[in-house]
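Duplicate of #3305? Posting structure anyway:
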């Protein structure tokens, strides 16, 4: 008799745990084999929808159809699953045991019928014992050889044409096609929001203009984007029916706009994760690193000093990662209370990342003139960050007053400007004392007396800082009126025009403005020289040892070179030469009755001038020989011997120049020696008809001649400047006041271009201006010409 009810346990000694695990696994396999065919065709419908979403097909469907399609897929899948799973039943224990028996190949069903009992012989102890032994042996053998086969899908009956494999392949290909956007596309396919799928976005970053870096356009997803601090993120979203959301640096914003067009900007000040979403769909994600803008650094290139005409000389160097836009010197009276004196320091070129400048200022008219001040330099970048230098103590130069009353007034002006309320009372008492007995001390100077009394009463009833400044101005004007001379005014006007010219050159002002300022500077220079001559000593003392002569012709030549450089477009070099000219004027002494007056200078200066002129002619001949060598190389080299003789003649001319410079030290002799060696090798190569080698040696000779001419020109300018090396009181500066050695490399090596270079640059500039006026040219060409003109 067979027992069909599910047993609760096997007989004593049977390995129940192993069999129960296998039976449970067999029931799970049967559950899958029954469930998987029931999921078709609902699973195929879902797979087709996912493949369309991954390939982006659904993104192009209008949102009403998208919503209808999504609801239809969900409804159809629900109906199919309901029909197919309505008769689904979980496999019983006997079902799992029968599957194990079939997969293992066990006959007589030792697992599913393990609870069978004897139909005959019941009650006989020997028979029942034999039956139990038989069953135990069969079941033990079966438990040791259990085997479970893999599940079978059985879908071929429902899908005989294999559509499931096509759908699976489409889903895999769609996932590969979508890549990182797979999750976003699947999510957007399930969100049938208006405009969520068809919205597009343009995004770019504009670095601050002072950095000079170009804009950077962004892809929908990027990481590790490094931009300068203060860059502006620009977002433009098209085709969205709702305002997209922007998340940046922990803040949540909305893009602004209407009719499907939305825009927003955000400034990047720190590292930020930026995300833009439209109706639940991510349009862009970026990880942005903000490069911090460091404050500028500024320091003294040389300690503050004064010139021969009592102007303050401030040499400084500054640098910034993107450029310094302004600099100034802040002077505070040492050990006194008083408002700071602020002096703006003009820059030759704005937004310079590293530079060195020298500025001259006449501060003799300031109340602090003659006092010790603590000078601090301050630099500012385009972001508004400020860098400062260490303070340097310096005695401001003061104008020399010979009139006793003028000296007294200047002293009280200093005490009033740099003192407190107690000092103000002392100044008031001193002014009162200086006006005692006017009939005795101010005979014929009624105006001076009335001015001092006006200053006294104005100081007594002063309540504001402007009132104090008015009294200081009265004292200064009275002291100047007691003295005579206009040299200081002429020098100050010259410095002011030099500053205006420097700023105009740095800011690329129009050429007519530059020309007008140069004419004003030339007129001011003439007035300054006249005032300098009027105040020159008349004792006809001989020049000190080592002194050099600088004539008006030399100054005019320098001014003409500045004008030519500005007209040819080389404004940076024009600004350098202007600073050189101002440095010469600040250290200029006027003498009467000394020198020849023709600017010829000493005999050695004449030799230098002749050598420079001779080198110029020799370089021209050497270039001509190089051209002939090239043409001879193209024609076959029949006249190589003639060229060799010409090279020998040029070498002889160079030897004569070297004889004229014999005994002079410096880099000129070394450079000319290199030129002589190169000419010798070129002559030998021409003699052997090695025209290629001769051309290379001739180029080396021209370069060596140029170096020698530069060295001679520098030596000539140093000797003409009147600051020979024997004076040696300028530390790390050359005779023209420029930094050398440890003072830095900024501003050195000023080279005067030749007349041919200036003429060629001027011709190029005129041709560019002519082409810029032809507006019928292509727009790209006109834009390119405009950019070139801006460089000039």
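Output from current build:
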């Amino acid at each position: 008799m067979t027992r069909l009810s599910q047993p609760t346990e096997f007989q004593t000694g049977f390995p129940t745990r192993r069999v129960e695990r296998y039976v449970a696994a067999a029931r799970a396999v049967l559950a899958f084999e029954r469930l998987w065919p029931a999921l078709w065709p609902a699973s195929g419908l879902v797979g087709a929808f996912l493949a369309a979403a991954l390939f982006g097909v659904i993104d192009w469907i209008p949102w009403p159809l998208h919503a209808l399609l999504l609801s239809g897929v969900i409804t159809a899948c629900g109906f199919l699953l309901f029909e197919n799973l309505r008769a689904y039943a979980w496999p019983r224990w006997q079902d799992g045991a029968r599957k194990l028996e079939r997969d293992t190949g066990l006959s007589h069903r030792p697992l599913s019928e393990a609870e069978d009992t004897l139909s005959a012989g019941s009650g006989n102890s020997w028979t029942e014992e034999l039956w139990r032994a038989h069953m135990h042996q069969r079941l033990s053998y079966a438990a040791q050889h259990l085997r479970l086969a893999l599940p079978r899908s059985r879908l071929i009956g429902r899908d005989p044409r294999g559509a499931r494999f096509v759908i699976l392949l489409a889903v895999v290909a769609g996932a590969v096609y979508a890549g990182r956007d797979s999750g976003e596309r699947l999510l957007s396919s399930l969100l049938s929001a208006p405009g969520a799928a068809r919205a597009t976005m343009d995004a770019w970053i504009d670095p601050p203009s002072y950095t000079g870096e170009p804009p950077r356009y962004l892809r929908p997803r990027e990481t590790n984007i490094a931009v300068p601090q203060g860059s502006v993120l620009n977002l433009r979203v098209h085709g969205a029916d709702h305002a997209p959301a922007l998340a940046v640096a922990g803040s949540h914003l909305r893009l602004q706009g209407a009719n499907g067009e939305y825009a927003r900007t955000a400034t990047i000040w720190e590292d930020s994760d930026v995300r833009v979403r439209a109706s639940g769909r991510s349009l862009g994600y970026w990880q942005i690193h903000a490069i911090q803008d460091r404050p500028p650094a500024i320091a003294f290139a040389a300690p503050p000093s004064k010139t021969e005409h009592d102007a303050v000389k401030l040499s400084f160097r500054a640098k910034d990662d993107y450029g310094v836009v302004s600099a100034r010197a802040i002077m505070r009276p040492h050990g006194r209370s008083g408002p700071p004196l602020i002096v703006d320091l003009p820059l030759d070129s704005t937004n310079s990342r590293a530079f060195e400048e020298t500025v001259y200022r006449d501060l003799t008219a300031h109340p602090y003139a003659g006092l010790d001040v603590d000078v601090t330099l301050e630099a500012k970048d385009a972001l508004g960050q400020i860098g400062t230098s260490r303070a340097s103590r310096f005695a401001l130069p003061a104008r020399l007053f010979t009139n006793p009353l003028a000296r007294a007034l200047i002293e009280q002006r200093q005490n009033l400007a740099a003192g407190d309320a107690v000092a103000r009372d002392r100044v008031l008492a001193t002014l009162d004392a200086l006006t005692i007995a006017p009939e005795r001390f101010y005979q014929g100077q009624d105006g001076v007396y009335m001015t001092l009394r006006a200053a006294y009463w104005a100081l007594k009833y002063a309540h504001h800082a402007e009132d104090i400044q008015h009294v200081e101005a009265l004292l200064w004007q009275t002291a100047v009126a007691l003295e005579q001379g206009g040299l200081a005014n002429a020098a100050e006007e010259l410095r002011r025009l030099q500053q205006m010219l420097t700023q105009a050159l740095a800011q690329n002002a129009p050429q007519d403005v530059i020309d007008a300022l140069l004419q004003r500077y030339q007129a001011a220079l003439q007035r300054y020289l006249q005032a300098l001559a009027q105040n020159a000593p008349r004792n006809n003392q001989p020049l000190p040892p080592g002194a050099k002569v600088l004539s008006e012709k030399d100054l005019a030549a320098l001014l003409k070179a500045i004008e030519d450089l500005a007209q040819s477009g080389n404004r940076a070099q024009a600004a350098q030469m202007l600073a050189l000219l101002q440095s010469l004027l600040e250290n200029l002494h006027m003498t009467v009755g000394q020198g020849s007056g023709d600017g010829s200078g000493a005999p050695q200066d004449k030799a230098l001038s002749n050598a420079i002129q001779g080198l110029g002619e020799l370089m021209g001949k050497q270039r001509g020989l190089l051209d002939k060598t090239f043409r001879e190389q193209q024609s076959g080299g029949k006249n190589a011997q003639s060229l060799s003789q010409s090279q020998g003649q040029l070498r002889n001319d160079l030897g004569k120049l070297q004889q004229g410079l014999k005994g002079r030290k410096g880099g000129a002799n070394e450079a000319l020696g290199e030129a002589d060696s190169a000419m010798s090798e070129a002559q030998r190569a021409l003699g052997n008809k090695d025209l290629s080698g001769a051309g290379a040696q001739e180029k080396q000779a021209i370069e060596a001649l140029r170096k020698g001419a530069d060295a001679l020109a520098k030596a000539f300018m140093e000797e003409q400047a009147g600051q020979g090396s024997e004076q040696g009181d300028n530390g790390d500066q050359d005779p023209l006041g420029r930094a050398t050695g440890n003072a830095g490399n900024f501003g050195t090596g000023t080279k005067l271009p030749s007349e041919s270079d200036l003429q060629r640059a001027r011709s190029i500039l005129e041709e560019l201006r002519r082409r810029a006026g032809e507006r019928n040219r292509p727009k790209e060409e006109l834009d390119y010409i405009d950019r070139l003109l801006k460089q000039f």
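Confirmed duplicate; merging threads. The chain has 22 helices and 17 strands. The longest strand covers residues 312-333.
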